[in-house]
Amino acid sequence: MSKNKKRTLVGLLLVVVVALGAGFDLRSTGAASQALRGEMADPLSYYYGTASWFCCGDAYGPCGDAGGGSCGDCQSGSYHAAWPKLKRPGYSDCDHSGCGMSLPWKYCGDSITVKSLYSNDSVTVYVHDCGPDQQNYCDMSVACGSCASDCSALVDLTPAAFSAIEDLDLGRIPARVSASGKSKGETTFLGGTVSRVEKDRLIIESRQLVSTLYITDDTRLWKGKVVSLNQIELGDKIFARAIPRAGGEFTATKVWVNIGNVYGVLVEKKDSILVLRIGGPDSKSVLTVHIDADTLLNEVRGVDLSALSLGQPMQALGVYQRDNSLLATRLWTSK
Questions:
Q1: How confident is the model over 117-173, as pLDDT tens digits?
Q2: Beta strand 273-277 with 259-270: parallel, antiparallel or unpaired?
Q3: 27-45: b (≥16 Cβ within 10 Å) or e
Q4: Same domain for 204 and 266?
Q5: What pLDDT, in 10s, does the model give residues 227-239?
């Protein structure tokens, strides 16, 4: 055995001894389990692709009840993520990898760092679900910047995590994934329902918590496009990044109103309406998606329905309407 291999073996044994002595569960403890599995332990191991966001867990802001994901405890308001290759002890492995990418297996609770290749901001997240389905989203357009070497769907973040590095209404961005690092943590993520609109603030309620969100000239308000405070209505559901003040008050830097971002399969198209099946082949859940002259398809303005095929996987981002349909601002398909 070479000296390098001996040193590696000794190092791994020390990790085991220290971890067991401290009572850690090596199946789920991030740094130790990653070292033992040899997966993404080297901070110089990078994976390039695109990142988007998804809803999971309890209803929160514009996200409805979405289930806890493959690990059972994913939450939209937490810094969680979906990774295409997930091992769950006691359950079958989940493998949605594809597009010629060789990705490491992750376990529930493992941490990774996702960096936007547009803003260069990073966020550390914890894997709590399996996805995205890479086979259906191999060559994707991005809303900003450009992909370093691969535009395949690589990782999905919760709204809390995605909004820490880019605006939610961008939907899909070029990204790099690596081992855990430093996160940008200057603002707080909030979600809730608007219960009152005043001249310079919103009162929002979520999970029996009431918060005051001050809106300034520097606040970016998005409701399909950048809007003013007088276009926010009672009952609107919001996500926000905000700077904490005293007594449950915040100064908003960015607010997204009734925003939605979904994956689905096109099952019907007519005039300016698309119908997406949400879920697996046997799912009865469908979403009506409206398109208009400003809707972007793969980042190009204008949607040519003849270019879309029934049975085609799609991603749609936009504004939920009062009838629970979605007015799309962006659509993506694999090229």
A1: 999 999 999 999 999 999 999 999 999 988 867 899 999 999 999 999 999 999 999
A2: antiparallel
A3: eebbebbbbbbebbeeeee
A4: no
A5: 999 999 999 999 9
Please say which residue of 211, 227, 257 terminates a domain. 257
The token pair that represents 229 in the structure block? 């405070």
Residue where one domain finishes, among candidates 146, 178, 210: 178
Q: Which amino acid is at 138?
A: C
Write out the residue range of the structural domain in which residue 119 sits.
47-178
Say whether both 130 and 248 belong to one domain. Answer: no
CB of 220 closer than 8 Å to CB of 133 = no
The pTM (predicted TM-score) of the whole model is 0.84
- What SS3 class is residue 6? helix
Compute the mean pLDDT over every residue in the chain, rounded to the nearest whole number: 87
Give the Cα-Cα-Cα angle 61, 66, 67 (nearest 5 degrees).
Answer: 130
* 14 pLDDT above the threshold of 90: no
- Nearest 5°: phi and psi at 31? -65, -45
